Backbone:
């Protein structure tokens, strides 16, 4: 089956309302902004987003009303600061109520790893005694059958789909990634299927020339879209994160009559106005990435 | 080497850097600690190794200023780029000597909250743990950097995101944490250690120009001061030069 397709078609085919979606799994790098913005354009609803640290992508999807729940360790952007859409949704239910399943980076990584390994849970020594694990639907304190130690059992979390952005892949979805990897590899293995966006679609021979670099095998992947998406999140070897772009997504445009006016957070940038997605489209229209130097 | 141009954040960064001993494995964290690690590595701890939760391991300061761990200068020239589970396994395995943390709230026993705050009765959702709960639970010791103001220093955190000594010494063992705990809290006003018996924060030094009364007024419990309360040494000329090299625009220390 032909896997290579336009991003709009890939999202239309494989992303459904109500799905559990892991994305932004690279921890600050390789954030699939183009795919996220396409999900917004296609107005998907009631999504459950999974990711340790999502950059501002989760915030945008939440602000656009696509999300009913976030399973994450940290929602925001280190450079741009607090995620105001996330805050507004949690605190005030705008544009819709948002449930949060809190994690630490390691617990969300282990939940996804358990699913990737096909086991119901993995044990850990982290987060014991914290309010994160108190009454948590996916964590239980257990006693080790070998040592008697008190451990945290982290239940498996299997996404319906994982969306990854890679530096390059072939037409089968065999992908080369480099730089810091976050939980991208585990998320690809845990999910029912993978939607892959890549900076560059390459010949099969480029992939097989360096098999250690193939970190996602194509048999996991359903769809491949070639997308220049490096600048919004930063892509090792290709581009820096674009701080100015982040800044632009925060200040503009404001609906008339709803200025900041000393409130704790700026008004919702897409509060039911016509053309509500304009600022997000601006953010999505990334320029072409610089070519990698040596290949 | 104090001059009027020295900022409290420069004092904090220099103090943080001095917490790193040569040859140690450091879980670096974000913001000011990024700078502290770069400083230590460039000056007194050339064999220190830095782990970053996004999967980066490096043994040299980044070649250019960085805002966050995912910035290209933190990846270029790294020793290793790997996964989150891989770097955090070193932490869980017990190989990390010191981890750096920040927080919206820190309490008397060094517990941290980065999940929920409150402003005039209104609950405010903060970003969450990130890797902080893991570092606080699993590093051999932790160093906390935090801006010192009363609303950030309650007697007891509203929500325990990252464990310090819980309700006192012995708590960590009770809940199943086999090692670690906070060793130092560096604030914008002073530096604290922890009482060996009670696990309570004890003031060890005041930053230049800060009075004990001023610090007490900004703290939500009656602060215990060490009998030999000192002044925090300000950054040396060498430290100051390095801070300015790594943070040329004063983004973090201005």
Residues:
């Amino acid at each position: 089956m032909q896997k290579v397709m336009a991003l709009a078609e890939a999202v239309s085919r494989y992303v459904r309302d109500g799905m559990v979606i892991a994305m932004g799994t690279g921890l600050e790098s390789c954030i699939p902004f183009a795919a996220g913005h396409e999900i917004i354009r296609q107005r998907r609803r009631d999504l459950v987003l999974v990711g340790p640290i999502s950059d501002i992508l989760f915030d945008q999807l939440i602000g656009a009303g696509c999300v009913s729940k976030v399973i994450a360790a940290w929602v925001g952007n280190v450079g741009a600061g607090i995620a105001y859409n996330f805050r507004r949704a949690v605190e005030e239910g705008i544009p819709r109520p948002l449930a949060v399943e809190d994690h630490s980076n390691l617990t969300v990584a282990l939940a996804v790893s358990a699913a990737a390994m096909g086991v119901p849970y993995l044990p850990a020594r982290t987060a014991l005694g914290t309010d994160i694990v108190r009454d948590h639907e996916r964590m239980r304190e257990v006693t080790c059958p070998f040592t008697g130690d008190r451990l945290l059992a982290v239940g498996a979390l299997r996404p319906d789909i994982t969306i990854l952005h890679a530096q390059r892949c072939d037409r089968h979805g065999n992908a080369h990634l480099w730089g810091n990897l976050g939980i991208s590899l585990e998320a690809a293995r845990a999910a029912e299927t993978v939607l892959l966006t890549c900076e560059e679609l390459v010949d099969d021979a480029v992939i097989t020339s360096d098999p250690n670099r193939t970190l996602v095998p194509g048999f996991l992947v359903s769809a491949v879209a070639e997308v220049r998406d490096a600048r919004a999140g930063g892509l090792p070897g290709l581009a820096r994160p674009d701080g100015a772009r982040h800044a632009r997504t925060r200040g503009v445009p404001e609906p008339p009559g709803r200025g900041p006016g000393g409130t704790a957070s700026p008004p919702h940038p897409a509060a039911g106005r016509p053309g509500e997605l304009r600022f997000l489209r601006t953010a999505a229209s990334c320029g072409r990435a610089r070519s990698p130097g040596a290949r | 080497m104090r001059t009027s141009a020295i900022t409290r954040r420069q004092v904090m960064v220099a103090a943080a850097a001095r917490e790193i001993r040569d040859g140690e494995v450091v879980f670096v964290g974000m913001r000011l600690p990024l700078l502290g690690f770069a400083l230590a590595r460039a000056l007194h701890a050339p064999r220190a190794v830095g782990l970053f939760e996004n999967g980066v391991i490096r043994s040299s300061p980044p070649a250019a200023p960085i805002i966050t761990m995912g910035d290209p200068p933190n990846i270029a020239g790294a020793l290793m780029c790997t996964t989150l589970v891989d770097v955090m396994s070193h932490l869980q395995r017990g190989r990390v000597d010191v981890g750096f943390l920040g927080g919206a709230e820190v309490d008397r026993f060094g517990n941290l909250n980065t999940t929920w705050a409150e402003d005039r009765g209104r609950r405010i959702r903060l970003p969450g743990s990130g890797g902080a709960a893991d570092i606080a639970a699993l590093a051999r010791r932790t160093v906390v950097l935090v801006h010192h103001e009363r609303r950030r220093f309650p007697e007891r955190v509203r929500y325990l995101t990252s464990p310090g000594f819980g309700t006192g010494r012995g708590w960590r063992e009770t809940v199943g944490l086999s090692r670690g705990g906070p060793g130092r809290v560096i604030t914008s006003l002073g530096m604290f250690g922890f009482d060996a018996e009670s696990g309570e924060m004890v003031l060890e030094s005041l930053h230049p120009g800060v009075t004990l009364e001023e610090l007490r007024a900004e703290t939500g419990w009656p602060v215990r001061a060490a009998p030999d309360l000192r002044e925090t040494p300000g950054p040396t000329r060498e430290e100051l030069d390095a801070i300015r090299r790594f943070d040329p625009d004063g983004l973090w220390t201005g």
User: Anything to note?
Assistant: The two ends of chain B are 18 Å apart (CA to CA). The helical segments of chain B are 8-18, 32-42, 72-75, 84-93, 132-138, 171-175, 212-217, 237-246.
